[in-house]
TrEMBL record:
Highest rank taxon of the organism: Bacteria
Record's keyword terms, sorted: Cell membrane, Lipid biosynthesis, Lipid metabolism, Membrane, Nucleotidyltransferase, Phospholipid biosynthesis, Phospholipid metabolism, Transferase, Transmembrane, Transmembrane helix
Thylakoid is among the record's keywords: no
GO molecular function (one): phosphatidate cytidylyltransferase activity
Species classification: Bacteria, Bacillati, Bacillota, Bacilli, Bacillales
Pathway(s): Lipid metabolism; Phospholipid metabolism; CDP-diacylglycerol biosynthesis; CDP-diacylglycerol from sn-glycerol 3-phosphate: step 3/3
PROSITE patterns: CDS
Protein name (Swiss-Prot/TrEMBL): Phosphatidate cytidylyltransferase
Transmembrane residue ranges: 6-37, 49-65, 77-98, 110-127, 133-153, 174-193, 199-219
Recorded family membership: Belongs to the CDS family.
Length: 262
Protein backbone atom coordinates (compact mmCIF):
# COMPACT_ATOMS: atom_id res chain seq x y z
CA UNK A 1 0.00 0.00 0.00
CA UNK A 2 2.86 2.38 0.85
CA UNK A 3 4.41 1.79 -2.58
CA UNK A 4 1.08 2.48 -4.29
CA UNK A 5 0.63 5.76 -2.43
CA UNK A 6 4.17 6.97 -3.14
CA UNK A 7 3.86 6.06 -6.83
CA UNK A 8 0.49 7.82 -7.08
CA UNK A 9 1.84 11.02 -5.48
CA UNK A 10 4.96 11.07 -7.69
CA UNK A 11 2.89 10.37 -10.82
CA UNK A 12 0.48 13.20 -9.98
CA UNK A 13 3.34 15.64 -9.33
CA UNK A 14 4.73 14.73 -12.76
CA UNK A 15 1.42 14.62 -14.64
CA UNK A 16 -0.49 17.64 -13.29
CA UNK A 17 1.86 20.36 -14.67
CA UNK A 18 1.48 18.88 -18.17
CA UNK A 19 -2.31 18.82 -17.79
CA UNK A 20 -2.43 22.43 -16.57
CA UNK A 21 0.01 23.78 -19.18
CA UNK A 22 -1.43 21.83 -22.13
CA UNK A 23 -0.20 22.64 -25.63
CA UNK A 24 2.71 20.85 -27.28
CA UNK A 25 4.18 19.46 -24.01
CA UNK A 26 0.89 17.70 -23.25
CA UNK A 27 0.62 16.42 -26.82
CA UNK A 28 4.14 15.00 -26.61
CA UNK A 29 3.31 13.41 -23.26
CA UNK A 30 0.23 11.79 -24.82
CA UNK A 31 2.36 10.37 -27.62
CA UNK A 32 4.90 9.06 -25.09
CA UNK A 33 2.18 7.41 -22.99
CA UNK A 34 0.68 5.83 -26.11
CA UNK A 35 4.11 4.50 -27.09
CA UNK A 36 4.61 2.91 -23.67
CA UNK A 37 1.08 1.43 -23.75
CA UNK A 38 1.71 -0.08 -27.19
CA UNK A 39 5.01 -1.53 -25.96
CA UNK A 40 3.13 -3.14 -23.05
CA UNK A 41 0.59 -4.73 -25.40
CA UNK A 42 3.31 -6.10 -27.68
CA UNK A 43 5.24 -7.53 -24.73
CA UNK A 44 2.06 -9.15 -23.36
CA UNK A 45 1.36 -10.72 -26.74
CA UNK A 46 4.95 -11.97 -26.93
CA UNK A 47 6.06 -9.71 -29.75
CA UNK A 48 9.14 -7.51 -29.94
CA UNK A 49 8.83 -3.80 -30.58
CA UNK A 50 12.40 -3.75 -31.94
CA UNK A 51 11.54 -5.93 -34.92
CA UNK A 52 10.17 -5.30 -38.38
CA UNK A 53 6.55 -5.86 -37.34
CA UNK A 54 7.09 -3.94 -34.08
CA UNK A 55 8.49 -0.87 -35.85
CA UNK A 56 5.70 -0.90 -38.45
CA UNK A 57 3.11 -1.16 -35.67
CA UNK A 58 4.76 1.72 -33.84
CA UNK A 59 4.64 3.88 -36.98
CA UNK A 60 0.98 3.00 -37.45
CA UNK A 61 0.18 3.94 -33.85
CA UNK A 62 2.06 7.24 -34.17
CA UNK A 63 0.07 7.99 -37.33
CA UNK A 64 -3.13 7.56 -35.33
CA UNK A 65 -2.11 9.27 -32.08
CA UNK A 66 -0.52 12.51 -33.35
CA UNK A 67 -2.74 15.61 -33.68
CA UNK A 68 -4.08 16.04 -37.21
CA UNK A 69 -2.06 19.19 -37.89
CA UNK A 70 1.15 17.16 -37.54
CA UNK A 71 0.16 15.27 -40.69
CA UNK A 72 -0.27 18.31 -42.94
CA UNK A 73 3.01 17.42 -44.67
CA UNK A 74 1.21 14.45 -46.28
CA UNK A 75 -0.65 16.93 -48.52
CA UNK A 76 2.63 17.95 -50.13
CA UNK A 77 3.27 14.27 -50.90
CA UNK A 78 -0.20 13.95 -52.46
CA UNK A 79 -1.14 11.15 -50.10
CA UNK A 80 -3.68 10.97 -47.28
CA UNK A 81 -3.71 9.29 -43.89
CA UNK A 82 -5.85 6.32 -44.98
CA UNK A 83 -3.44 5.54 -47.80
CA UNK A 84 -0.50 5.53 -45.40
CA UNK A 85 -2.44 3.22 -43.07
CA UNK A 86 -3.02 0.86 -45.99
CA UNK A 87 0.69 0.88 -46.88
CA UNK A 88 1.68 0.05 -43.31
CA UNK A 89 -0.96 -2.69 -43.11
CA UNK A 90 0.32 -4.14 -46.41
CA UNK A 91 3.87 -4.13 -45.01
CA UNK A 92 2.69 -6.04 -41.94
CA UNK A 93 1.01 -8.61 -44.17
CA UNK A 94 4.07 -8.83 -46.39
CA UNK A 95 6.19 -9.57 -43.33
CA UNK A 96 4.25 -12.82 -42.87
CA UNK A 97 5.85 -13.99 -46.11
CA UNK A 98 9.43 -13.11 -45.28
CA UNK A 99 9.49 -14.01 -41.57
CA UNK A 100 9.47 -17.80 -42.21
CA UNK A 101 6.28 -18.27 -40.19
CA UNK A 102 7.66 -16.43 -37.14
CA UNK A 103 5.12 -13.69 -37.80
CA UNK A 104 1.69 -14.83 -38.96
CA UNK A 105 -1.74 -13.48 -39.89
CA UNK A 106 -3.12 -13.58 -36.33
CA UNK A 107 -0.26 -11.40 -35.15
CA UNK A 108 -1.00 -8.88 -37.92
CA UNK A 109 -4.46 -8.56 -36.40
CA UNK A 110 -3.00 -8.08 -32.92
CA UNK A 111 -0.65 -5.37 -34.19
CA UNK A 112 -3.42 -3.52 -36.01
CA UNK A 113 -5.81 -3.61 -33.05
CA UNK A 114 -3.05 -2.64 -30.60
CA UNK A 115 -2.06 0.36 -32.75
CA UNK A 116 -5.63 1.66 -33.02
CA UNK A 117 -6.61 0.77 -29.44
CA UNK A 118 -3.77 2.76 -27.89
CA UNK A 119 -3.48 5.36 -30.65
CA UNK A 120 -7.08 6.54 -30.68
CA UNK A 121 -7.39 6.72 -26.91
CA UNK A 122 -4.34 8.92 -26.42
CA UNK A 123 -5.13 10.94 -29.56
CA UNK A 124 -8.37 11.98 -27.88
CA UNK A 125 -6.56 12.66 -24.61
CA UNK A 126 -4.60 15.42 -26.35
CA UNK A 127 -7.71 16.56 -28.23
CA UNK A 128 -9.68 16.80 -24.99
CA UNK A 129 -6.99 18.98 -23.40
CA UNK A 130 -7.02 21.18 -26.50
CA UNK A 131 -10.74 21.75 -25.90
CA UNK A 132 -9.97 23.07 -22.41
CA UNK A 133 -8.55 22.14 -19.03
CA UNK A 134 -11.98 21.61 -17.51
CA UNK A 135 -12.83 18.97 -20.10
CA UNK A 136 -9.76 16.91 -19.20
CA UNK A 137 -10.66 17.20 -15.53
CA UNK A 138 -14.22 16.18 -16.37
CA UNK A 139 -12.97 13.03 -18.14
CA UNK A 140 -10.75 12.21 -15.17
CA UNK A 141 -13.69 12.74 -12.80
CA UNK A 142 -15.77 10.27 -14.81
CA UNK A 143 -13.15 7.55 -14.56
CA UNK A 144 -12.09 8.33 -10.99
CA UNK A 145 -15.63 8.45 -9.59
CA UNK A 146 -16.68 5.34 -11.50
CA UNK A 147 -13.64 3.31 -10.39
CA UNK A 148 -13.83 4.53 -6.79
CA UNK A 149 -17.56 3.92 -6.52
CA UNK A 150 -17.32 0.48 -8.08
CA UNK A 151 -14.48 -0.50 -5.72
CA UNK A 152 -15.91 0.67 -2.41
CA UNK A 153 -19.56 -0.15 -3.05
CA UNK A 154 -18.56 -3.52 -4.48
CA UNK A 155 -16.55 -4.29 -1.35
CA UNK A 156 -19.32 -3.09 0.96
CA UNK A 157 -22.39 -4.78 -0.51
CA UNK A 158 -21.23 -6.69 -3.58
CA UNK A 159 -22.59 -10.25 -3.76
CA UNK A 160 -23.20 -10.99 -7.44
CA UNK A 161 -20.13 -11.49 -9.63
CA UNK A 162 -20.05 -9.32 -12.73
CA UNK A 163 -17.48 -11.15 -14.87
CA UNK A 164 -15.88 -13.87 -12.72
CA UNK A 165 -13.89 -15.38 -15.58
CA UNK A 166 -12.21 -12.05 -16.27
CA UNK A 167 -12.15 -10.09 -13.01
CA UNK A 168 -13.34 -12.16 -10.01
CA UNK A 169 -13.53 -9.21 -7.59
CA UNK A 170 -15.91 -7.06 -9.64
CA UNK A 171 -19.59 -7.27 -8.78
CA UNK A 172 -22.90 -6.16 -10.25
CA UNK A 173 -23.52 -3.98 -7.19
CA UNK A 174 -20.15 -2.32 -7.67
CA UNK A 175 -20.89 -1.82 -11.36
CA UNK A 176 -24.13 0.01 -10.51
CA UNK A 177 -22.40 1.91 -7.70
CA UNK A 178 -19.80 3.15 -10.14
CA UNK A 179 -22.51 4.58 -12.38
CA UNK A 180 -24.22 6.30 -9.44
CA UNK A 181 -20.95 7.87 -8.27
CA UNK A 182 -20.19 9.09 -11.80
CA UNK A 183 -23.59 10.78 -11.92
CA UNK A 184 -23.02 12.45 -8.54
CA UNK A 185 -19.36 13.50 -8.76
CA UNK A 186 -18.69 13.88 -12.50
CA UNK A 187 -22.17 15.34 -13.02
CA UNK A 188 -21.60 17.72 -10.12
CA UNK A 189 -18.25 18.78 -11.55
CA UNK A 190 -19.81 19.44 -14.96
CA UNK A 191 -22.51 21.60 -13.38
CA UNK A 192 -20.29 23.65 -11.04
CA UNK A 193 -17.57 24.07 -13.69
CA UNK A 194 -20.31 25.71 -15.78
CA UNK A 195 -19.43 23.73 -18.88
CA UNK A 196 -21.81 24.35 -21.80
CA UNK A 197 -24.60 21.93 -22.62
CA UNK A 198 -27.83 20.55 -21.24
CA UNK A 199 -27.04 19.08 -17.80
CA UNK A 200 -29.94 16.61 -18.04
CA UNK A 201 -28.59 15.25 -21.33
CA UNK A 202 -25.05 15.12 -19.93
CA UNK A 203 -26.27 13.09 -16.93
CA UNK A 204 -27.97 10.65 -19.28
CA UNK A 205 -24.80 10.32 -21.33
CA UNK A 206 -22.76 9.89 -18.14
CA UNK A 207 -24.52 6.58 -17.55
CA UNK A 208 -23.33 5.41 -20.96
CA UNK A 209 -19.80 6.74 -20.38
CA UNK A 210 -19.53 5.12 -16.96
CA UNK A 211 -20.62 1.78 -18.41
CA UNK A 212 -18.08 2.04 -21.22
CA UNK A 213 -15.36 3.09 -18.78
CA UNK A 214 -15.94 -0.04 -16.74
CA UNK A 215 -16.05 -2.07 -19.94
CA UNK A 216 -12.62 -0.68 -20.86
CA UNK A 217 -11.29 -1.89 -17.52
CA UNK A 218 -12.78 -5.35 -18.11
CA UNK A 219 -11.35 -5.53 -21.63
CA UNK A 220 -7.86 -4.89 -20.30
CA UNK A 221 -8.43 -7.46 -17.55
CA UNK A 222 -9.49 -9.99 -20.18
CA UNK A 223 -6.36 -9.23 -22.19
CA UNK A 224 -4.11 -9.79 -19.18
CA UNK A 225 -5.90 -12.96 -18.14
CA UNK A 226 -5.70 -14.43 -21.66
CA UNK A 227 -1.95 -13.85 -21.80
CA UNK A 228 -1.38 -14.87 -18.19
CA UNK A 229 0.05 -11.64 -16.79
CA UNK A 230 -0.87 -9.79 -13.58
CA UNK A 231 -0.17 -6.26 -14.85
CA UNK A 232 0.35 -4.78 -18.30
CA UNK A 233 3.74 -3.41 -17.23
CA UNK A 234 5.96 -2.41 -14.31
CA UNK A 235 6.60 1.26 -14.98
CA UNK A 236 4.35 2.31 -12.06
CA UNK A 237 5.33 0.29 -8.96
CA UNK A 238 2.24 -0.90 -7.13
CA UNK A 239 -0.03 0.15 -10.00
CA UNK A 240 1.28 -1.84 -12.97
CA UNK A 241 1.69 -0.29 -16.39
CA UNK A 242 0.37 2.68 -18.33
CA UNK A 243 -2.38 0.52 -19.82
CA UNK A 244 -3.49 -0.48 -16.31
CA UNK A 245 -4.02 3.18 -15.40
CA UNK A 246 -5.52 4.43 -18.66
CA UNK A 247 -7.68 1.45 -19.71
CA UNK A 248 -10.97 3.16 -18.82
CA UNK A 249 -9.93 6.51 -20.31
CA UNK A 250 -9.08 4.82 -23.62
CA UNK A 251 -12.77 3.97 -23.92
CA UNK A 252 -14.22 7.14 -22.40
CA UNK A 253 -12.21 9.87 -24.17
CA UNK A 254 -13.22 9.07 -27.78
CA UNK A 255 -16.86 8.77 -26.71
CA UNK A 256 -16.80 12.27 -25.18
CA UNK A 257 -16.18 13.57 -28.69
CA UNK A 258 -18.39 11.09 -30.55
CA UNK A 259 -21.31 11.94 -28.25
CA UNK A 260 -20.47 15.64 -28.80
CA UNK A 261 -20.12 16.41 -25.10
CA UNK A 262 -16.88 18.09 -26.16
Amino acid sequence: MKTRIITAVVALIFFIPFVVYGGIPFELLSILLATIALYEVLVMTKQRIFSMNGIITLLLMWLVVVPDRYLNFLDTLHINEMEVIFILMALLLANTVFSRNKFHFDQVGICMVAAFYTGFGFHYLALTREAGLMYVLFALFIVWSTDTGAYFIGRAIGKHKLAPNVSPNKTVEGFIGGIVCALVFAGGFYYFAELPGNIALVLALLVFLSIFGQLGDLVESALKRFYGVKDSGKILPGHGGILDRFDSLLFVLPLLHILQII
